[in-house]
Backbone:
C-alpha cells in the first residue's frame, strides 16, 4: 500500500524528521506521549525512508499555518490547474460562474449572527424569520416547468434533438414533416414532466404530513393546537413523550420536581444514548405554568455553529431586582429532530437559533448547519456516458456531412447542402434513444417496487436505477441501519467463574441467600447491605467466596450507572401521572431511561437476578433486594463517560452504614491501568470481543470520610478554575483511580438487524468497498464493525490516534501507511485535521483499506467524506442511513438509500430509494441494479447500432443518386421503422433471461470499446442492405420488361421500353433537382 503512493520530497535527510518528533514528544513527559514517542522511535530506525513528506517546514507546525499555499508544490499545482482550466473548459467554468453569481444575487442568504428572543412574545423579535416548515421539494409552482426543461436541455443529447427539431421550421432545411421530429421529442418531454410531477407531488405530500403535526402552544388564554409549520420564534410549546422537537428550543419547565428529562438524539447524531436535559432554574421555580407570561425575560443565543455538542447563551429576567442572569449550555437546549424520551410534560421556548439562514431547506432543522443541502438533480453515470458518446457521434456526423459536400463538388449553395446532410445523418443519434431509456427506467422502478423479496421498497428517484449496478463505495450508518438498538446482557465473568445466559439462575439464588443472611444478621429494613466496616478492616485479608463476589459485582452494576426509572399511570382525566418516592413501586409500569443502551441492559439484568433499581433522583437512588428490602444510597459525585477517559464513575454513601464507596466501570483499555494486578482480565476481554460482545470492566474503592472530604475540596476548587478547568478536574479524579479492586467483567451484545452479516459479505464479494460512518463512540463502532463482519476477526485494525495539529497528523499517517491490508478506525476530530492538511494523502491511504470505520462524525463530515471519495476516485458512491443526521450524506452520494424504521422517516424521504431493512440493499444492488444497468446498456447499444445502419444506408443512397440531399424515409414511415425495431426489446421479455439481455453486440455493457465495433458493423451492414435492395429493384425492372415484350409482341414491347427509359430519365432529373424519391424505390427500401 505504501509503495503505490507518490512521494514529493521537500527534504533530503530523515534526521530532521526524527529531530522534529523528538522535540514534539519531549514536552509530553511520562504518559501517553512518551509511549507514543518510543513507538515512533522504534519504527523510524528501519522505515524512515518511506515516510510521507511534510508539505511545509517542520518548524512551522504550530507557529505558522499560513505558508501552506506558498510552497513550491502548491505553486506548481496551481499552475497546472490554471493551464488545464485555460485549455480544457475555461469557457464553461466562466459561464457556470456567471450563472451561479446571478443565482446568489437573487437568493442572497442573510448573515448569520447572534440574536435575542423574547419569552412568549414573537412579535418582539427584531428580525423576520422563515416558516418552521420542512421542504424536500425540488421546485415550486412557478419554477417547475422551467426547472424541468433546464435539467433536460442542459445535456448535449437533448439539446441536439431540440436543435434538429427547430431546424424543420426553416423551409430551406426542411427534409420531412414536422411531426416526425416534434412528436418523439414531445413524447420524451411529456414522460419526463409527468414523472417529475408525480415525484414532486409525493414529496409534497410527505412534507405536508410532517409539517401538519400538531403541538400544544401555551398562550395567555390557555393552550391552543398549532401545526408544526405555524410555530414562530418565541412561542411557548408543550412537548410530550415520543414527540419530535419541531425546532431548536430552550428547556424552560417540566412537571418533574428534579427539573430534568431525557431526549433521544439518534436523528441528529446517530447515538442511541439518551441525553439528560435540565430546565432553566429560573423558570422551573415558578409556582404555576401560567406564570411564564407574568415575567419579562429573553434568551440571548449565540451565532449558529456546526458543532451540535456545544451551545452558549444567556437567560435574562429583567423584572427582578437585580436582574437575573443565568447561563445556558448544551444541557438547556434541545435541537430540532430530537425526540422526548421521558414521559414528562415540559415547556420550552422556541428560540430558533438559525433564523432565516436555513429557510431554503427547513427552518426546523436549523442547528444542522450544512447538514441538509439544496436538492440536486442526480444524473446517472450511464446518462453521462451517453452524453459524451453523443458528442463523439456528432463529430462523426459533421465529418460525414463535410465528405458528402466535398464529393458533391461545392456546387451551388453548398452550405445549405451541408446543413441538409447534417439533418439527414442525424439518425446517427436517434431521438428514440431517450424514449426507450425513459420508458425502461420507469419499468425498472415498477419492477423494483413489485419485487416480493424486498417488500416495502419505494423508488423515489426513477431516473437513476442503473446507478445501483455501478457502485464502488458503500457508506453506511450504524445506529438503526446495521443494528436494532437493542442490547442484551450475555456474560458475567468474575475471574475464576463465568456466568452465561443459561446460568443466571445461579446468580439469582446466590444473591437471594446473601441478602437473606445480611437481613437476618441486622434485622429490619434498615439493615446494612454489607457487613460492618470494622469487621472488614480487622479481619485478615483472605480470598472472598464466590457468593460474596457475586453479591458485590451485582451491587456495583446496580449502582454504577446513570439510569433513571420512570413510573407512568393514567389518571381520571387521562393525563400522565408519576409515582413519587414514597409510593409503592410497581414493576408493571416502570421503564428505564439512560444515556446509553448498555446502561439500560445492565440495570435490566440486575432486575432479572433480583436487585432492582426502583428510584433515582439527582441526589439519591434506591434498590430493592430479592426479599423486598429497600436500600437507599446517597449520590455524592457522578463522573460521566467521556471519549477521552473511556470510563464513568459514581461515589455513593450507604445511608444505613455511612460507608462511602467509589464505583467505576469502563473499557478494558482504560481500566487495566487503574485496577489491581490480575492475570485474567486481558485474556477474557479478548475472548468476549471475539464473540462480538461489548465489554465493561467494573471496579470499586472504599473511601473514608476524611479521604472523601479532601477529594471534594480539591474537586470543587478545580471546577471553579477559569483556565484549564477540564485538565484540573481530570487530574483530581485520577487521584482516586488507583489500586481499585476488580469486581467483574460484563459482556453485552448489540443486536444486529436480520441478515446483516451475509448481506455485507455478499456486497463485499460483489466488489464494493464498505465504509461505516457513525456518530457513536469509537469502542461501540469498532465492536459493531467486528460483530457485523465488516472487519473480519483475523484482520488487523489500525485505530488512528487522536491528532490536533499538522505535525501529529503527519506522524500518525506515516505510522498508518506502513500497515498493509488492515482496517482503519478514525474519529471525527482526527479526520478533520487530516482532511485539512493531508486530504489527498489520506484519501489514497484510506481507499486502499478493505474497510474504514469513521466514528464521532458530524452530519457535515459524512457529506464531506462522500464528496471526497467522488472527487478523489471518480467512482460511484452509495450512502445508506436511517436518521436525520444521514440526510446530508444521502444527498451528497450518487445514490442514496434510506431505511424506514423507528428512527424516523427523514432519511427515507430524502433518499432515492427507501427499504425497510438493510438486508434488502443486497438484492436491490446485486439483482435489480445489475439487471437495470445491463438492460439499459444493451438497449442503448441496440438503438445506436440501428441509427448507424440507417445513416449508412442514407449515405449510400445519396451517393448513388449524385450525392443528392434527399431523405431515404419520410413521414410516418421513419417513425414506423423505429417502432418496428423497438418492440423487440420490450421490458416484459428481458426478465426471462435473468438479466442476460440478447444484444447484437458484445460486450453487453456500454463501454468505449463497443463503439468501434458498432461503427464497423454499420459500415458493413448498411451498404449490404442497400446493395441487396438495389439488386431486387433491378430484377423487378428486368422482369417487368420481359413480360411487356411477350405481351405486346414486338412494337408494343419497344414502346414500353421507350416509356420506361423516359420515366427513368425524368426521375433522375427530379432527384438531381432535389425533388422527392419515387414511390416504387421508397416502398422497397421500407422493407429493410
Residues:
Amino acid at each position: 500500500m505504501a509503495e503505490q503512493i507518490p512521494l514529493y520530497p521537500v527534504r533530503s535527510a530523515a534526521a530532521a524528521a526524527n529531530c522534529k518528533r523528538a522535540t514534539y514528544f519531549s514536552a509530553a513527559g511520562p504518559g501517553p506521549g512518551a509511549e507514543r514517542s518510543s513507538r515512533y522511535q522504534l519504527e523510524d530506525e528501519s522505515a524512515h525512508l518511506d515516510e510521507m513528506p511534510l508539505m511545509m517546514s517542520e518548524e512551522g507546525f504550530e507557529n505558522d499555518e499560513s505558508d501552506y499555499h506558498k510552497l513550491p508544490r502548491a505553486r506548481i499545482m496551481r499552475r497546472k490547474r490554471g493551464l488545464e482550466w485555460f485549455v480544457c473548459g475555461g469557457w464553461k467554468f466562466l459561464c457556470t460562474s456567471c450563472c451561479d453569481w446571478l443565482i446568489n444575487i437573487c437568493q442572497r442568504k442573510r448573515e448569520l449572527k447572534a440574536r435575542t428572543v423574547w419569552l412568549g412574545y414573537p412579535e418582539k423579535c427584531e428580525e423576520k424569520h422563515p416558516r418552521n416548515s420542512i421542504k424536500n421539494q425540488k421546485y415550486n409552482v412557478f419554477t417547475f416547468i422551467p426547472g424541468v426543461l433546464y435539467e433536460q436541455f442542459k445535456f448535449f443529447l437533448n439539446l441536439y434533438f431540440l436543435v434538429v427539431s427547430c431546424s424543420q421550421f426553416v423551409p430551406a432545411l426542411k427534409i420531412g414533416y414536422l411531426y416526425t421530429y416534434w412528436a418523439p421529442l414531445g413524447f420524451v418531454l411529456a414522460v419526463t414532466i409527468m414523472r417529475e410531477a408525480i415525484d414532486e407531488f409525493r414529496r409534497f405530500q410527505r412534507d405536508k404530513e410532517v409539517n401538519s403535526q400538531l403541538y400544544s402552544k401555551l398562550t395567555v388564554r390557555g393552550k391552543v393546537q398549532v401545526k408544526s409549520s405555524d410555530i414562530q420564534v418565541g412561542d411557548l410549546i408543550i412537548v410530550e413523550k415520543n414527540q419530535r422537537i419541531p425546532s431548536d428550543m430552550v428547556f424552560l419547565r417540566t412537571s418533574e420536581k428534579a427539573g430534568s428529562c431525557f431526549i433521544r438524539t439518534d436523528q441528529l447524531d446517530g447515538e442511541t444514548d439518551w441525553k439528560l436535559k435540565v430546565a432553566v432554574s429560573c423558570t422551573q421555580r415558578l409556582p404555576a405554568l401560567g406564570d411564564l407570561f407574568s415575567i419579562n425575560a429573553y434568551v440571548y443565543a449565540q451565532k449558529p455553529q456546526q458543532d451540535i455538542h456545544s451551545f452558549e447563551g444567556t437567560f435574562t429576567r429583567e423584572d427582578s431586582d437585580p436582574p437575573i442572569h443565568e447561563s445556558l449550555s448544551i444541557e438547556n437546549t434541545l435541537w430540532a429532530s430530537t425526540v422526548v424520551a421521558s414521559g414528562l410534560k415540559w415547556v420550552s421556548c422556541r428560540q430558533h437559533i438559525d433564523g432565516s439562514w436555513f429557510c431554503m431547506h427547513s427552518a426546523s432543522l436549523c442547528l444542522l448547519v450544512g447538514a441538509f443541502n439544496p436538492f440536486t438533480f442526480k444524473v446517472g453515470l450511464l446518462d453521462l456516458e451517453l452524453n459524451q458518446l453523443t458528442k463523439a457521434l456528432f463529430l462523426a456526423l459533421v465529418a460525414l456531412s463535410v465528405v458528402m459536400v466535398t464529393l458533391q463538388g461545392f456546387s451551388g449553395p453548398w452550405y445549405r447542402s451541408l446543413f441538409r446532410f447534417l439533418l439527414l445523418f442525424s439518425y446517427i443519434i436517434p431521438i428514440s434513444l431517450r424514449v426507450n431509456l425513459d420508458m425502461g427506467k420507469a419499468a425498472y422502478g415498477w419492477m423494483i417496487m413489485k419485487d416480493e423479496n424486498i417488500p416495502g421498497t419505494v423508488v423515489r428517484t426513477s431516473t437513476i436505477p442503473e446507478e445501483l449496478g455501478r457502485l464502488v463505495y458503500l457508506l453506511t450508518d450504524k445506529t438503526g441501519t446495521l443494528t436494532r438498538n437493542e442490547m442484551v446482557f450475555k456474560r458475567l465473568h468474575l475471574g475464576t467463574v463465568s456466568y452465561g445466559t443459561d446460568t443466571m439462575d445461579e446468580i439469582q439464588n446466590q444473591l437471594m441467600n446473601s441478602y437473606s443472611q445480611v437481613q437476618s444478621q441486622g434485622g429490619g429494613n434498615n439493615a446494612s447491605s454489607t457487613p460492618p466496616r470494622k469487621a472488614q478492616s480487622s479481619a485478615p485479608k483472605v480470598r472472598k467466596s464466590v457468593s460474596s463476589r457475586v453479591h458485590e459485582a451485582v451491587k456495583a452494576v446496580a449502582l454504577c450507572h446513570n439510569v433513571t426509572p420512570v413510573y407512568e399511570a393514567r389518571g381520571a382525566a387521562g393525563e400522565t401521572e408519576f409515582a413519587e418516592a414514597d409510593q409503592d413501586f410497581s414493576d408493571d409500569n416502570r421503564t428505564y431511561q439512560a444515556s446509553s443502551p448498555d446502561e439500560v441492559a445492565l440495570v435490566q439484568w440486575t432486575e432479572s437476578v433480583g436487585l432492582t433499581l426502583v428510584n433515582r433522583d439527582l441526589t439519591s437512588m434506591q434498590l430493592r433486594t430479592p426479599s423486598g428490602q429497600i436500600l437507599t444510597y446517597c449520590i455524592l459525585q457522578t463522573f460521566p463517560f467521556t471519549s477521552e477517559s473511556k470510563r464513568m464513575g459514581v461515589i455513593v454513601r450507604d445511608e444505613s452504614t455511612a460507608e462511602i464507596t467509589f464505583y467505576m466501570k469502563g473499557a478494558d483499555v482504560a481500566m487495566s491501568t487503574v485496577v489491581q494486578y490480575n492475570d485474567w482480565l486481558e485474556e477474557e476481554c479478548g475472548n468476549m470481543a471475539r464473540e462480538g460482545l461489548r465489554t465493561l470492566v467494573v471496579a470499586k474503592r472504599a473511601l473514608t470520610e476524611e479521604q472523601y472530604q479532601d477529594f471534594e475540596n480539591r474537586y470543587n476548587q478545580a471546577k471553579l478554575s477559569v483556565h484549564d478547568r477540564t485538565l484540573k478536574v481530570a487530574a483530581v479524579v485520577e487521584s482516586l483511580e488507583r489500586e481499585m479492586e476488580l469486581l467483574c467483567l460484563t459482556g453485552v451484545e448489540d443486536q444486529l438487524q436480520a441478515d446483516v452479516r451475509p448481506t455485507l459479505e455478499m456486497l463485499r464479494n460483489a466488489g464494493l468497498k464498505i465504509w461505516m460512518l457513525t456518530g457513536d463512540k469509537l469502542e461501540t463502532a469498532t465492536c459493531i464493525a467486528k460483530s457485523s463482519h465488516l472487519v473480519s476477526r483475523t484482520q488487523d485494525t489500525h485505530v488512528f490516534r487522536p491528532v490536533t495539529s499538522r505535525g501529529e497528523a503527519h506522524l500518525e499517517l506515516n505510522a498508518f501507511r506502513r500497515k498493509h491490508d488492515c482496517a482503519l478506525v478514525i474519529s471525527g476530530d482526527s479526520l478533520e485535521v487530516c482532511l485539512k492538511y493531508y486530504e489527498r494523502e489520506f484519501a489514497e491511504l484510506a481507499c486502499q483499506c478493505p474497510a474504514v470505520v469513521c466514528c464521532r462524525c458530524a452530519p457535515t463530515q459524512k457529506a464531506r467524506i462522500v464528496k471526497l471519495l467522488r472527487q478523489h476516485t471518480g467512482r460511484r458512491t452509495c450512502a445508506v442511513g436511517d436518521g436525520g443526521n444521514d440526510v446530508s450524506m444521502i444527498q451528497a452520494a450518487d445514490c442514496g438509500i434510506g431505511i424506514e424504521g423507528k428512527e424516523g422517516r427523514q432519511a427515507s424521504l430524502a433518499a432515492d430509494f427507501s427499504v425497510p431493512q438493510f438486508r434488502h440493499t443486497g438484492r436491490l444492488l446485486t439483482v435489480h441494479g445489475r439487471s437495470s444497468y445491463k438492460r439499459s446498456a444493451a438497449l442503448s447499444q441496440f438503438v445506436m447500432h440501428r441509427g448507424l445502419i440507417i445513416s449508412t444506408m442514407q449515405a449510400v443512397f445519396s451517393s448513388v443518386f449524385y450525392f443528392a440531399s434527399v431523405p431515404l424515409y419520410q413521414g410516418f414511415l421513419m417513425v414506423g421503422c423505429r417502432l418496428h425495431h423497438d418492440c423487440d426489446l420490450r421490458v416484459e421479455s428481458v426478465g426471462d433471461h435473468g438479466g442476460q439481455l440478447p444484444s447484437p453486440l458484445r460486450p453487453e455493457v456500454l463501454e468505449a470499446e463497443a463503439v468501434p465495433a458498432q461503427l464497423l458493423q454499420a459500415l458493413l451492414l448498411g451498404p449490404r442492405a442497400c446493395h441487396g435492395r438495389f439488386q431486387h429493384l433491378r430484377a423487378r425492372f428486368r422482369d417487368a420488361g420481359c413480360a411487356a415484350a411477350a405481351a405486346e409482341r414486338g412494337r408494343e414491347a419497344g414502346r414500353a421500353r421507350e416509356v420506361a427509359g423516359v420515366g427513368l430519365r425524368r426521375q433522375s432529373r427530379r432527384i438531381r433537382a432535389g425533388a422527392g424519391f419515387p414511390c416504387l424505390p421508397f416502398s422497397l427500401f421500407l422493407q429493410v
